[in-house]
Design a protein that fits this description.
alpha/beta, Aldehyde Dehydrogenase, Chain A, domain 1, Aldehyde Dehydrogenase, Chain A, domain 2, 2 domains, 5-stranded parallel β-sheet, 39% helix, binds NADP nicotinamide-adenine-dinucleotide phosphate, binds magnesium ion
Length: 518
Amino acid sequence: MTERFKVTYSTLASPDPKLHQLYDEAVERAKANFGKNYPLFINGEERFAEKTFEKRSPVNLDWMMGTFQYGTEQDVNDAVAAARAAFPAWSGRPWQERVAIMRKAADLISDRLFDMGANMSLEIGKNRLEALGDVEETADLIRYNCDAVEKNNNFNFPLLTESDKHHNRSVLKPYGVWVVISPFNFPGALAGGPAGAALIAGNTVILKPATDTPLTAWFLTECFRDAGVPAGVFNFVTGSGRVVGQALLDHPSVDGVTFTGSYDVGMHILRTFSTAKYPRPVIAEMGGKNPTIISKKADLDKAAMGVMRSAFGLQGQKCSACSRVYVHADVKDTFMSKLLEVTRQINVGDPTIKDNWMGPVANKGAYEDYKKFVADLREGGKIVHGGELLEGNGYFVAPTIVDDLPEEHYLWKHEMFLPIVTIAPFTDLDDAMARANDVEYGLTAGFFSEDDDEVQWWLDNIQAGVLYVNRASGATTGAWPGYQSFGGWKGSGSTGKAAGSFYYIQQYMHEQSQTVVD
Ligand code: NAP
Ligand code: MG
């Protein structure tokens, strides 16, 4: 175990030198650990499959981080059976005991911050602060949901009563077996956050992580195991989404699912899983095509910094990344020169090296997409920065700024999920708003203006779940549990409720009204 180091907003903004040293040491340990064979974890036991797949680092394709199991239908059936069998005892325990175990899990995640963060950087190309932030966010999401249950007496409330002889209550109870399917881009927070919530609520869980990020999910599995989560209560299955993921969703004994990932897969799950023999809850968190509007009354230094950080942080692979900018024609040239200036300062390279703010994109598919999108953007549009592949033995691409893209170009509406931002001028704020809202998505949005009336107008009219005004640290990115709620509208999310806020964990339980007459 490494020394405990609390990451907060302020430590991430101006990190202590000690943080860098601990991270650098953990990178060396991570490299020394390359090449292990990692199991499935079913009913409290490690299990190996006949077929395995290699996890290579996108930072350097020669780095074979480990092999992972291709789970089979049998593994899925066994995991569901184990979760089903473990449900009565886990849900029947006093909620205080579940909270205590999950707080322990959160503390173990914090204890292992540097090892998990260093491995995550190598696994998916996150820079050190992004990776450490993701790990600590995972722990904080679990703590946040423990707090929510505690503050609300596990959502056990009295109802109105007709007389002293009537005892009427509303209680929330867990559904049963909950599947969590997580994406590659926040492999800690978006696996451990939902899994933690489901467990705290009293469900048993099967986690199927993205094929690009099985290692972070394995570290989480170890934290749950070591915290004392009983056998069968938390299970970990790797393999492809189409096979293992789909088999989990098709299983009749699964009661609910949290999916975080692309619009296409999320909509497929909503259309199929939630209409089985009876309705089953789906929490689907999907993509984004997040706009930033820059008024002529904006502070353009803030706007340029905010857009740069949102568009290119984590290589544009945040669901909250800013991918469209609408800037007032009067200030567009000045904004563009400021944006170019801050973008030129970005170093792209091995993200475990302190000076590199951008790492590689996640995988070959993303790298190929980048080539295709850049070629398509050149048709009609003008690439004013980037648009090229960079040297290295990993998937390195340049941060890319596109101007003059015709309004009808399909890439104004398609989520690219890459470090590419398109910029357009406007002369009328209402017209900018209409264009900002004219997409199927509604996850995050940003606005820059120093005029309070404009700010209120923007807050009243933009269609998205997570809004930021004048945020230089990220025009559309950078939510933290308890500080921002995080969830999408329209095609970005299915429930209308967000994570890291008041209404999240209740979704993992159904309500029961209990009337008892003496
Ligand atoms: P993805 O391709 O949709 O995959 C997400 C997960 O679904 C992976 O674990 C994947 O497994 C699995 N999967 C794929 N097909 C499946 C199927 N038929 N049945 C069951 N599971 C299946 O998404 P991604 O590329 O990992 O992540 C990027 C996307 O996530 C972007 O669209 C981004 O905007 C979105 N995202 C949204 C949020 C949010 O909070 N709204 C947060 C983060 C990311 P494999 O990896 O094995 O294919
Ligand atoms: Mg994918």
